[in-house]
Every structure is written in structure tokens, then in C-alpha cells.
Amino acid sequence: MNSSPYAQLNALAAPSDWRALFGWPRVRTVAIVCALFTLLFSFGWDAQLWQLVARVYGVGLALLLVFGLFEQWPRRLPTWMARWALQVAAVGATVPLAFFVAFLLSTAAGAPPFWKTARLEGFMTFTFLGMLVAPWTALAALLRHREAKVEKQAIDFALERSEMARQALDARMRLLTAQAQPHFLFNTLANVQALVEAGSPRAPKLLESLTSYLRAAVPRLDGAANTLGQELELVRAYLELMQMRMPDRLAFALHVDAGVQLLSCPPMTLLTLVENAVQHGIDPSEEGGRIDVRAERLEDGRCRLSVVDTGVGLQASGSGLGTGLVALRERLLWAYGGSATLELSEVTPHGVNATIEFSEAT
To answer: For domain 200-359, is the CATH number 3.40.1130.10?
Structure first.
């Protein structure tokens, strides 16, 4: 890639919209330069001041038109010609022509041509200073345009990169959720199968409850985000199913603070904790146990989700972070960054407390 300043100017001085011709930055620059010229020549000016103002600002307007004209035309240039160079050269060539017309129009009727009078010196002075200042002003404007366009491209690139990162995050979240869905569904179906094979009279009722549960749950599992209210509904339905499978070995309760139901969370966040408590805490215990699910708002504005079971505990089950909890921790990392935590702790005399904390601002 050719990254020389001339090549960058050639690329960035491409034809643009005609509406940009009289954009405020350009008009302001021309007005300031013309004001400086007027101030410079006002000292010792014998004629009326409005003539000087009209002459200088008329030439400034002509140069602005020429600068914009060669920014748009011709549409295609030979490969050896840079548009920025054409614009600067055109502005420089227009200076003597514009002052010639200005001096010609300001000559009184019947008076000799200005080039045959002392006014020729004034024309030469105006032309010399104009050719000295105008091309450099045009070049400075082109460089400023290049800087503004590079800055805009950098901002656009940053926005595009941010959008790509967001899409990658969303895809990763969906992948992790998709990995958790079969894990949950197959485990639940295995529980139903075990009950059917045992010939339990509760099997038809359990299968009916499972069908109703899946009808409500499956459409939500594909979502990029759930609310805690939806998660709590799924948790309650799941625990009711598990309680039907082992009515004498499982008790549960949900404790929910007001307002937390509307908070967002990744799909199956709370459900994964509850499923883990049933499979690794209550199921291996001969006497079963109790599961308490809590969703509470803390004083610092964070939200805490906890699932406490009185099952066999971490050491007896031999499971620290199982597959489901490992995937859940990764989903939390992608969704909340480092602001979310997942912790497991022993409960006395036996059991496990699984706790998630995250900021509701996310």
C-alpha cells in the first residue's frame, strides 16, 4: 500500500457532494483569509473601503468555486494526475485571472485601462500575495480534510470492531446455551424413563407435566437473554417435576425479593444451579433433602442468586464444578465480564450453597 502524503491526498480528495461546496468550514476559512487581506490593504487605501471589501471577497468567492469545481470535475483523471494537485494548481492559476477581472470591473467608464496607470502596481501586489497565500490555504484545507476523514475512518473502524466483538459474544453465548440445553433435556427425560421402567403409577402424570413444562420452556431456551422471572418459573416447574419423581425425598421453596423478576440474566442460569443441586446433592442422598432457591437484591445494587441444598455435599458427591457449572461460569463471564461471580461452599452439617452475584446494571 502506498502511504505517502501525496498518495493519501490523492485518495481523500475524491469527488464529493456538491452540497459540501459551501460548507461552513470552507466559507469560514475563506472569510477569515479575506478579512486579513482587507485589513492588510486598508492601510493607505484611498478609495472607498467597500470597493476593497468587494474586490477581495469577490476573488475569495471565485477561488472557492474553482476549488469546489475541480473537486467534482472531471469525474475521472489520468492515472498520473492527482486531484489534490489539480485543485491547488487551479486555485493558483485563478488568482491573477480573478484579480484581473476585479480590477477591470472597478475601472471607471472612459478611464484608461488599469495596466496603463499606477493601479498596475496594486494589481501586481494583490496578485503576488494572492498566489502566495491561496494555494497554501487550499493545500492546508486538503490536509485538514484528510485528517478529518482518517479520524472518521478510525471511528467507523472502532465501531465496526465493537459490533463484530458483540456479534462474536452473542454467538459464543448461544453456543454455550445450546450446549446446556441437551444436557438438561436428556437428564430430565432419563428421569422419566427410569420412572416408566419401574412401572410407577406416577409416570403418566409426570410425563404430562414434563410435556407442559417443555412446551413453555423450549421457546425460551433459544433466547439470548431471559428475565429472572422467567428463570424462576422454569425452576419451579423443574422442581415440581423432580418432586413428583421422588415425593418423599425432595422438598423445596422459592424466596424472591420484590423487583428482581425483571432483571436480565443468561438463559438457564438459575436452572443450572438447581439441576446440579438435584443430581449431585439430593439424588445421591438416601434420605433426600431440601432445596431453597433465593433471589435477592443487595444493598450495593447487586443481585444475588443462591441455591442451597441439604444433600450429600461436595466431598461426598466428589463433584466440584461439574460440566454444567463450568459452562455456566463461562456464560456469566461472557455476559457480565468480571463483575459476576459463581461460588460453591459447604453447608453444615451437609449440603452445598451455590451463589451467583452480578450487577443489575448489566
So the answer is: no
